[in-house]
Amino acid sequence: MKSRRSKLEIYLDVLKVIKDGTKKPTRIMYGANLSWKLLQGILSSMVAQDLIDEVDASESKDKRTSKYYEITPKGDSVIRYFDRAKGLIEIDEPNFNPLQIARGR
C-alpha cells in the first residue's frame, strides 16, 4: 500500500504536470491525481508564490476554459532543485517508511 503524499510532493507533482505541457486546470487535476477543490487552493498558492503564471484565455477559441497555467522560471528551478536533492538520497529498502521509525514499529 502506498503512503500518502506530503504537501511538498503534491506541489511538485502539479509543477511537473504543468511543465510537461498540461495547461488546462481539469487536465492538471487528472495528471496530479487531485480533487478539484484541493487543486484550486494549490494553483492559487502557486500563482501567489510566482511558481506558475495564470493566463487569461477568455479570448481563445476554446470557450470551456477561461484560464490556463504555465510554469515560471522559479517553478522550473524548484523542480530541478528537488530532483537533485532526491538524487542525493539513496533508500535501499523498497518498503521503507520513515513514519514507522517515528512510531517505534
Number of strands: 2
**Helix percentage:** 40-55%
Structural class: mainly alpha
Instruction: Compute the CA-based radius of gyration.
Output: 16 Å
Residue windows where pLDDT falls under 50 for at least 5 positions: none
Strand fraction equals 5-15%
Average pLDDT, all residues = 85
The top level CATH class name: Mainly Alpha
- CA-to-CA gap between the ends? 17 Å
Secondary-structure element pattern, one letter each: HHHEEHH
Q: Compute the number of helices.
A: 5
Number of domains: 1
CATH topology assignment? Arc Repressor Mutant, subunit A
CATH architecture: Orthogonal Bundle
The main β sheet shows up as: 2 strands, antiparallel
- The CATH superfamily label reads Winged helix-like DNA-binding domain superfamily/Winged helix DNA-binding domain
What does this structure look like?
By secondary structure, the protein is mainly alpha-helical. It has a single domain, classed as Winged helix-like DNA-binding domain superfamily/Winged helix DNA-binding domain (Arc Repressor Mutant, subunit A), CATH 1.10.10. 53% of the residues lie in helices and 10% in strands. The chain contains five helices and two strands, in the order αααββαα. The protein has helices spanning 7-19, 25-32, 36-48, 73-88, 98-103, and strands at residues 52-56, 67-71. Helix 1 crosses helix 2 (25-32) and helix 1 (7-19) crosses helix 4 (73-88). The two termini are 17 Å apart. 16% of the residues are buried. The mean pLDDT is 85.
